[in-house]
Amino acid sequence: DGATFSEAIDPFTVNNVNYTLTDTVTGIVAPGTVAYADGNMIYYPLNGLAYSTNYTVRIKGGQSGFKDLAGNAMVDDFVIRWTTSANPDTIAPTVTTVKPADLANEVPVNTLVSATFSEAMDPLTMNNANFTIAGVAGLVSFDAPSNTASFKPAINLAENTTYTATVSTGVRDMAGNALASNKVWRFTTFAPVVIIPPPIIPSVNLGTASTYGTFGGTAGMTNMGTLTLINGNIGTTATGTTSITGYHDTGGDIYTETGSNMGAVNGLIHTCTTSTVGPTSASVSAPKCALATQARLDAQTAYLFLAAKPPGANPGANLAGKTLAPGVYTAPSGSFQIEGGNLTLDAQGDANAQFIFQMATTLTVGGPGAAFPQSIVLAGGAQAKNVFWQVGSFATINAGGGGTMAGTIISQAGVSFSTAGNVSIVTLNGRAMSLGASVTLVNTVINVP
């Protein structure tokens, strides 16, 4: 600290009485020595000043204060205050979370590898030199709000392979502190699974339900959007006048359509209620109600047949990235999901080969999260008409829209495709049937095989 005067000062007035440095809050004097030369005075604290502390400098005026060489005194005290800098950050940052987790297995081959830090980091140090996956080319990015660096491989990782990820001591926080040591973790991608269970005999018989693209059980059916197209019949045994909304068929019946909710049925709507406009608007069609009732009974018979088959192979709860041969597959914990990749069904050249999936509770296709649609890929002559999903409760198909599903879904408690507001079309080559609760479609195309 110091001061510069307008003229030469009487050196005998330069002392620790006329120049003081004190803690503004406590009034404690910061001891030091005063030096003077050529109109400039410098104060040397004996000890380092405290961080983040406000100090007061007082240069004393008046007859007992500073004077020039002619003996003229400063008129008044000169006072200034200032605050020292904050305590510098010397603590090394740490990596708090990594994804995939260390020693994780069954990691999707399209995974994004990331590391989250304990504090704000210098983005210029987040690069391919400091964040690597051994043997993998990719792009490193950094999200400052979440303090997360991500490594996106240039191509999908290899299946059934262990990878080593490293964040080196080259990364630094905003104060320049480096990691204390390299952060290293390993993970293994999923292995392709080809399971060959015994052949399925006899085949599944849908009866009169085979002509329906969707069946809303005893509750009804709802369409949202203008892109829904059902290439087949639809039906329900519901009797409420609002149990069917957003559909019209080739017979002239319209069920509560609006400008934003219009679904085309390239077949007939068989139901036990009346339409809004059309041939069945005046009264319930007894023949159509009888057809719907029989179709529900046939769907229920098929469901019970599928559920009664002996438990099959256990492919794991998540079917993503797997290639399955014909057979019966039973969900190990009651639910199947296809999240993080597509499912391939390989008939191995047999066009009549069947695939049956049994689950006590739910079926979820799409994800992780709502934004990633997944699909069923049919290979080796596999046909959608020979794929069956027996769902104990509810089926959710590509909630974010998009993707292609295959097979006949028979659920106890409802089916939904996409989510209101999504315009990306979900395609089902098969059937969506619920025995009890309703079926909801959002911009969905169904092709009855």
Describe, in plain words, how this protein is organized in 3D.
The protein has one helix spanning 286-308, and strands at 2-4, 19-23, 32-37, 40-45, 54-59, 78-83, 95-99, 104-107, 113-117, 131-133, 138-143, 148-153, 162-167, 183-189, 212-216, 221-224, 229-231, 233-236, 244-245, 247-249, 254-255, 263-265, 269-271, 323-324, 327-330, 336-338, 343-346, 355-359, 363-365, 376-379, 387-391, 395-397, 404-411, 415-417, 426-434, 439-442, 444-447. It is mainly beta and 449 residues long. It has three domains: 2-83, Sandwich (Immunoglobulin-like), CATH 2.60.40.1220; 95-189, Immunoglobulin-like (Sandwich), CATH 2.60.40.1220; 207-447, no CATH class. Strands 15, 17, 18, 20, 21, 22, 23, 25, 28, 31, 33, 35 and 37 form a 13-stranded mixed sheet that branches. The mean pLDDT is 93.
Key features?
1 helix, single chain, Immunoglobulin-like, 3 domains, 5% helix, seven-stranded parallel β-sheet, mainly beta, 449 residues, 37 strands, 13-stranded mixed β-sheet
Shape: elongated
- Rg, rounded, reads 38 Å
Approximate strand percentage:
35-45%
What is the distance, rounded to the nearest whole angstrom, between the alpha carbons of the first and last residues? 88 Å
How many structural domains? 3
What is the averaged pLDDT score? Answer: 93
Q: Approximately how much helix is present in the residues?
A: under 10%
Number of helices: 1
Number of strands: 37
- Sheet having the most strands: 13 strands, mixed
Summing up helix and strand content along with how strands pair, one would put the structural category as: mainly beta
Parts with pLDDT < 50 across at least 5 consecutive residues: none
